[in-house]
């Protein structure tokens, strides 16, 4: 009878392990479906994937954004990392690229985006009040994370872990999810304090911005069925032991 009890427990543990193995945390990488910058003058070039941020050569200040389609995410999201490539190649000799600040570090922060997706990806000219409002939206509101950038980040993916507020927003997204960004440590010499500067930035290819999501899939119905069979088997074994 003692051996029967041990075998019953082993059967139960085995079926439960099988049933809930599908609930182990898994990481999925999503490439951005859109990205870009807005200037403080309200300019945004439609279909331009350049996501430079900070002081532009034009003298304007840029905030940026990244857009992801999360409609395929299943199960609760437990964590996320935004990966953004910081270039190390100039458009032409002498042009700035990557991290351009004369300061040793600059702080880059992520924020929630309240602007509707259709408005976010639309084009606006210099002086647009709508564009100026979106510029402000990308660099204010709920903070989703922070990164301290430096020259050492050139030629690498900058990785920013989303905080609890960012993860909560991801779980509430159910589709398109946008995140805005700005350099929070700009001083008067804005044209020398930039990040992600290049003319080759794109949402296509191996260097596209990425969102790595950690989630726990819901247990599949078939797995729960297997667990149920295990419980039935345990009950049958115990009845057989009592009869013996």
Shape: globular
Number of helices: 5
CATH class category of the largest domain: Mainly Beta
Helix content: 25-40%
Low-confidence stretches: 15-22, 221-237
Our count of domains comes out at: 2
Q: Based on helices, strands and strand pairing, what is the structural class?
A: alpha+beta
Q: Could you spell the SSE succession in H and E letters?
A: HEEEEEEHHEEHEEEH
CATH topology annotation of the largest domain:
Jelly Rolls
**Main beta sheet, described?**
7 strands, antiparallel
The CATH architecture designation of the largest domain is Sandwich
Mean pLDDT value = 83
Radius of gyration: 25 Å
Strand-residue proportion = 25-35%
**DSSP summary, beta strand count:** 11
Q: State the separation between the terminal residues, measured CA to CA.
A: 8 Å
Structural topology:
Elements: H1 2-20, E1 26-31, E2 34-39, E3 53-55, E4 61-69, E5 77-86, E6 106-112, H2 117-120, H3 129-138, E7 143-149, E8 156-161, H4 164-173, E9 176-183, E10 194-195, E11 210-215, H5 221-243
Antiparallel strand pairs: 1-11, 2-4, 3-4, 3-10, 4-9, 5-8, 5-11, 6-7, 6-9
Overview of the structural elements:
The structure is a single chain. The protein is an alpha+beta fold. It folds into two domains: 50 residues; 191 residues, Jelly Rolls (Sandwich). The protein is built from five helices and eleven strands, in the order H-E-E-E-E-E-E-H-H-E-E-H-E-E-E-H. Strands 2, 3, 4, 6, 7, 9 and 10 form a seven-stranded antiparallel β-sheet that branches. Strand 3 and strand 4 form a beta hairpin. Helix 1 packs antiparallel against helix 5. The longest helix is centred in the C-terminal third of the chain and has 23 residues. It is globular. It starts with a helix and ends with a helix. About 10% of the residues have low confidence.
């Amino acid at each position: 009878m003692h051996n029967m009890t041990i075998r019953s427990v082993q059967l139960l543990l085995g079926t439960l392990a099988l049933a809930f193995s599908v609930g182990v945390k898994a990481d999925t990488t999503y490439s951005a479906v859109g990205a870009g910058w807005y200037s403080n003058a309200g300019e945004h070039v439609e279909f331009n994937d350049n996501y430079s941020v900070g002081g532009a050569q034009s003298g304007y200040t840029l905030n940026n954004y990244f857009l992801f389609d999360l409609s395929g995410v299943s199960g609760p999201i437990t964590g996320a990392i935004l990966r953004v490539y910081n270039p190390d190649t100039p458009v032409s000799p002498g042009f700035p690229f990557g991290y351009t600040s004369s300061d040793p570090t600059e702080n880059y922060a992520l924020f929630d985006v309240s602007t509707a997706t259709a408005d976010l990806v639309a084009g606006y000219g210099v002086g647009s009040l709508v564009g100026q409002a979106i510029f402000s939206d990308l660099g204010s509101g709920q903070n989703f994370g922070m990164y301290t950038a430096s020259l050492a980040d050139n030629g690498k993916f900058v990785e920013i872990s989303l905080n609890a507020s960012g993860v909560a927003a991801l779980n509430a997204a159910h589709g398109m999810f946008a995140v805005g960004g700005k350099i929070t440590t700009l001083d008067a010499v804005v044209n020398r304090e930039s990040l992600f500067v290049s003319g080759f930035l794109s949402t296509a290819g191996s260097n596209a911005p990425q969102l790595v999501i950690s989630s726990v899939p819901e247990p599949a119905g078939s797995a729960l069925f297997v667990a149920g069979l295990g419980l039935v088997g345990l009950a049958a074994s115990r009845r057989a032991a009592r009869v013996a």
